[in-house]
Design goal:
This protein is α/β, with parallel strands linked by helices and 444 residues long. It is 49% helix and 16% strand. It contains 17 helices and twelve strands. It has a six-stranded parallel β-sheet, sandwiched between helices. A three-stranded antiparallel β-sheet has the order 7-8-9. Strand 11 and strand 12 form a beta hairpin. Helix 4 runs antiparallel to helix 17. The longest helix has 25 residues. It is globular, with a radius of gyration of 21 Å. The chain binds nicotinamide-adenine-dinucleotide (NAD), 6-O-phosphono-alpha-D-glucopyranose and manganese (II) ion. The site of manganese (II) ion has 5 residues, from loops.
Length: 444
């Protein structure tokens, strides 16, 4: 069977070790000959790389391993790039979250002003990696989940329209897993779903079991009271901030009795509550630095110290959920499985009453020639209105980055449903410009 070569861009990411473990556990369906890590911060990457080298030697010694900060070395002879970079890393995420909160506005990694700020850093990082890939391995696919995926996808559409990048998110998968638990279905893949939206901005309009039975009434009834908080989710030991997010969906379930909203809609539909649940002194970035980042880096150091992975004491925070959809996607591309997956793609008529050039999140069939988006048809006025507003925000950010336009970025912030007025938008923008001076183009 053909064996594949993979580079992980953002090798120093907290997700890298669990993705490597996931790849190793799935070589029966995605055989590998090479795993490479690439990061532009070699010191950070080294901690992760040393542990990954030990894990690979232990589990699949025949797979070649390399960690590098040299793009040519990283991107030569690869079939897939799994991209999860974070330009500015977690300290910049902290500012993205805290600056809007100063003005009583949602402070979040991918939604509202925080997501806009992050996009202005992320766009050149992802484009740079895409260019390396196309230069050194023009037939490779980039499976990108670097955030903010919605705006990054729009930037790739505008700037590299013919590139082999596929943008994807794990949130709908996590939601589907919890909905399956609520419906008493053992595996989310045993549900047939209809879903549409933008990334971190979507709705399920139909959920059925394999016999065609409608599961929506049962799931909706539970979610009106508990949101996504299934008993299994509560047992998983998630942090309170995530439990809040999963639960708060219950407050807007009845806004549309025919759909189920994705978790991230809370930032747009109940921003006041989202802000009330935030602590400007201690946001999600702080939590991630104190918990996931610390845990993963400690675990990696422990593996390196002991020289062994099996039987280690500290956990790797391996999130099967997060890693599995990436393997599913690579597997579908490699073996032409035509698996149905939710991807972020150009609309081109799939949602008939939304512009062709919007990057939407919809079901697609994935095979060796790429993806085929499925048809959604007309969506209701409520969702259409929300999506058009948010899509305009996303397009304005990309235009602002390309044109170095202060006005367009101000418009983007003003148009975001999370921001109450143009004057507050301007204050936030001016603070963000100062905080991002090392990353953003100079705006005029
Ligand atoms: P992290 O800060 O731990 O790691 C990111 C790494 O990217 C760092 O080591 C950094 O040095 C590196 N990097 C930054 N700019 C780079 C560049 N230009 N080229 C190469 N490497 C670069 O971040 P994390 O918390 O592990 O998250 C990683 C990314 O994955 C984030 O963008 C996050 O939002 C995203 N993510 C997306 C999804 C999704 O659903 N789409 C899910 C989880 C995480
Ligand atoms: C979900 C989203 C990702 C996001 C992540 C944040 O998985 O789909 O896009 O990056 O949550 O998680 P964190 O634990 O870093 O707050
Ligand atoms: Mn996501």
């Amino acid at each position: 069977m053909r064996q594949f070569s993979v580079v992980i861009a953002g090798g120093g990411s907290t997700y890298t070790p669990s993705i490597v473990v996931m790849l190793l556990n799935n070589t029966y369906r995605l055989p590998l000959r090479k795993i490479k890590l690439y990061d532009n911060d070699p010191e950070r990457q080294e901690v992760i790389a040393k542990a990954c080298e030990i894990i690979i030697k232990e589990k699949n010694p025949e797979i070649e391993f390399l960690a590098t900060a040299d793009p040519e070395e990283a991107y030569t002879d690869i079939d897939f790039c799994l991209a999860h970079i974070r330009v500015g890393k977690l300290p910049m995420r902290e500012l993205d979250e805290k600056i809007p909160l100063k003005y009583g506005v949602v402070g979040q990694e991918t939604c509202g002003p925080g997501g806009i700020a992050y996009a202005m850093r992320s766009i050149p990082g992802v484009i740079e990696n895409l260019d390396y890939m196309e230069k050194y391995s023009p037939n490779a696919w980039m499976l990108n989940y670097s955030n903010p995926a919605a705006i990054v996808a729009e930037a790739a559409r505008r700037l590299r329209p013919n590139s082999r990048i596929i943008n994807i998110c794990d949130m709908p998968i996590a939601c589907e897993e919890h909905m399956a638990e609520i419906a008493g279905i053992p595996d989310r893949k045993e549900m047939d779903v209809r879903y549409y939206g933008l990334n971190h901005f979507g709705w399920w309009s139909d959920i059925r079991d394999k016999q065609g039975n409608d599961l929506m009434p049962k799931i909706r009834e539970y979610m009106r009271e508990h949101g996504y908080l299934s008993p299994q989710l509560l047992a998983q030991g998630n942090e309170q901030s995530w439990l809040d997010t999963y639960e708060m969906v219950k407050y807007f379930m009845d806004l549309d009795p025919n759909t189920i909203p994705e978790t991230y809609l809370k930032y747009y539909l109940i921003p006041d509550m989202a802000v009330a649940h935030s602590n400007i002194e201690h946001t999600r970035a702080n939590e991630v630095m104190e918990v996931r980042e610390k845990k993963v880096f400690e675990a990696c150091r422990e593996i390196t110290r002991s020289g062994a992975y099996e039987g280690m004491k500290v956990g790797l925070d391996s999130d099967e959920n997060h890693a599995s959809f990436i393997v599913d996607l690579a597997h579908a591309l490699a073996f032409n499985t035509k698996e149905r997956m939710l991807l972020i793609v150009e609309n081109n008529g799939s949602i008939s009453n939304i512009s062709d050039d919007a990057m939407v999140e919809i079901p697609c069939l994935v095979g060796s020639s790429g993806y085929e988006p499925l048809t959604i048809g007309k969506i209701p006025t409520f969702q259409k209105g929300m999506m058009e507003e948010q899509n305009a925000v996303e397009k304005l950010v990309v235009e602002a980055w390309i044109e170095h336009s202060y006005t367009k970025l101000w418009q983007a912030l003003t148009l975001s449903k999370t921001v109450p007025s143009a004057t507050i938008a301007k204050k936030i923008l001016d603070d963000l410009i100062a905080a991002n001076k090392d990353y953003w183009p100079e705006l005029h």
